[in-house]
Specification:
The protein has 243 residues and is α+β, with helices and mostly antiparallel strands. It has helices at residues 3-19, 29-36, 40-52, 102-107, 147-150, 154-160, 179-185, 228-235; strands spanning 56-59, 63-66, 74-78, 88-99, 115-125, 128-138, 165-176, 192-202, 207-215, 220-223.
Length: 243
């Protein structure tokens, strides 16, 4: 993931965490560049992407504002979620406690800053490896975590711990398998796969889990309500603004 792509994902996350209101102004290019430790050109690339997909609007003499209407698609099912938990087997490859990176500290709320659990596991359906999954969650969410817990549903553990899950912000990217990952799936290097990254967000707007999955044979169905404002936005002529 490039620096600009990370900024896009992080700003989207903060908007959908209910921490931002329609027409609210986001940080300036200069402040965003300082926050993410990147050039202003990288920030502009990220902001352009957010404008292109209709999340932000550039307003002369005001800056970048959050659009009043945001599209919120919902996943009906995927090739993983259509299976019951007891049909999915997990094999833990790595479980360790470590300090947060700067990037992770930018993502998690201040009250959760500190050590994190890093979990890497294989997800197995019908005796076939279908996913390589890597998850990060703050130790303040799970003060204790062991390998047996890592074999089960993280969302169920969150619910059992008293967290109320609101939604997940999920991104999909078509990728080619590295040589190492291809060996895990018993496929050839550069075979097609899907990279799915998600952030689990509570009703209080807290991110409690980051997950990245490399999946093969991935399929998903979404319910996408027609949004006239988005339709009109996509079909309007480009407008250039000077600041």
């Amino acid at each position: 993931m490039s620096k600009a792509e990370f900024i896009v994902e992080d700003l989207l996350s903060k908007i959908y965490q209910k921490k931002s209101k329609p027409s609210q102004k986001i940080l300036s290019e200069r402040n965003l560049a300082e926050k993410y430790e990147v050039s202003r050109n990288t920030v502009r690339k990220a902001l352009k992407k957010l404008i292109d997909i209709g999340v932000l609007e550039a307003v002369p003499k005001k800056g970048y504002l959050i659009k009043k209407t945001k599209v919120n698609p919902s996943l009906i099912y995927s090739s993983v979620t259509e299976k019951k938990s007891n049909q999915i087997e997990s094999k833990v490859l790595l479980l360790k406690e470590r300090e947060m990176t700067k990037r992770e500290a930018n993502i998690f709320d201040a009250q959760l800053i500190g050590s994190v659990w890093e979990l890497k596991r294989l997800r197995i359906l019908d005796q076939k490896v279908t996913e390589i999954q890597e998850s990060i969650f703050p130790k303040k969410v799970f003060p204790y975590f062991d390998e047996e817990m890592g074999k089960g549903s993280i969302q169920k553990l969150l619910i059992d711990a008293g967290y109320y899950i609101s939604h997940s912000l999920t991104s999909f990217e078509a990728v080619n398998l590295s040589e190492q990952d291809a060996q895990v799936f018993h496929l050839k290097k550069n075979s097609a796969a899907m990279k799915v990254t998600s952030r689990t967000i509570t009703t209080e707007g807290l991110i409690v889990e980051l997950t990245s999955r490399i999946a093969v044979d991935y399929k998903g169905t979404f319910r996408l309500p027609f949004n006239k404002e988005t339709f009109d936005f996509r079909h309007q002529k480009d407008k250039l603004h000077d600041f």
